[in-house]
Amino acid sequence: MKTQRIRPRNLLSIVTLALLTGMGTAQAAIFKDAQFESLQDAGNYIELERQAQARLKADAGDAEASAALSLALTFADAGDAKRLEAGAKQAKRCIEQHPTAAVCHLATAQNLGMQMLSMGMFKAMRMLDTLKESWSRTLELAPDSFVARVQLAKLYLTVPGMMGGSVSKAKELEAAVHASQPETARIIRVNIAAEAKQWGAMEAELAALKPGKDAAMREEIRDATMQLAQVFLADGKDLAKAKSLYANLLRDQPDHAAGYYGLGRVHIKMGQADEAIRNFERAKTMADADEYPIEHRLGDAYLAKGDKAQAKAAYERFIANKRSNPANLDDARKSLAKLG
User: PROSITE patterns this protein is in (predicted)?
Assistant: First the structure.
């Protein structure tokens, strides 16, 4: 799951958020090859690995196939340390064979982000420069890369100055494509506004975006909308505004869980447990459902309704799921413990 970006209060939070930012759009706008791109967008890494291996067998010098294999090894099962290591070795091999192929450096950046998430704080901090260099090299080789430009800008915005962060550098990345790639520039401005907590500016820039069918842009819009809606949702600050943002997201991206999940959270806050449950159950049917702590919130909804048995079952499912977001696990365990 992708976390909502909030102001971190300690170095561990800073590093974790920076790493999640660095690997933001891992499933989009990477390959020129349409088949590879389609499999990547769908997150079908098993088939991506199979096709990449077949392509490399036919042509060992195929740079895109080499990078595809690295990404497949990296993301098919991020909890498998051996596959993650194999992905790193494949990315290194890709760069050694194709030092000027942007896709190889991009695969390296993605793998680095996943590696760092499993490391201790201080070891991960030492690798931040390498991650930044990988994104920078990708962008140098492919100046039109939406993924590299946006992820590098987000990394600059998230990491503090003493660790290489810089709002001015993010603004430079935006200015470089302000006229030539207006939508890329706009999504960077969305993130700059978010970092400055200028919620009105962030909302205006988001509303003006024209994503079309681009998967990477749609994902950025999804993440930013969820972040902004969370601001209004927190402490019931402006539930109507949060509901409107989630409803717009559902309208524009009905094939993703985000809109349903967000509306479910709003309905809990509004005391409408049945409507919350309906939205959470629908969110569970979406392909990207694992990106959100749906069972945790479903447990909260059943608890609000007074159905302790269903609440307990939902909390237990969430805790048992190895892919559950650690940030929600403690709350879910506490809620479950109270149920006895």
Answer: TPR
